[in-house]
Known about the structure:
six-stranded mixed sheet, globular
Amino acid sequence: MxxxxxxxxxxxVPGIDDYLRLRYLSGLSPFxxxxxxxxxxxxxxxxxxxxxxxxxxxxRIIGDGGCFFQATDVAIMPEHQGRGLGKMIMAALTNHIENxxxxxxxxxxxxxxxxxxxxxxxxxxxxxxxxxGMARKVA
Length: 139
């Protein structure tokens, strides 16, 4: 557990309601409760950013467990943003990446601007023009 002022990191998956709430409040795309119930237990690694007993932020690593991983769901409630808390979440995720994943693992993420500046600080680099991120939603 890492602590910073009134905030601390807990190494655990957020509950369904906290997960959906944090995605909504931080402006990330919404998921159904059924999708979250299925997806969250399959997390490779996850952290919750706590203020007292409240989950006010989160971050996860998902993937196949060997070759490919993705840092995702980095979210902080708007009223707590701008305090370096994203760095706390990314430091915990990076620690896991560097110490627990295979040395040949490929770790990617999709960065919303301006969060790409945060991710650069943790060793992530844009892949364009060699490759570009692509996505497809199931409609």
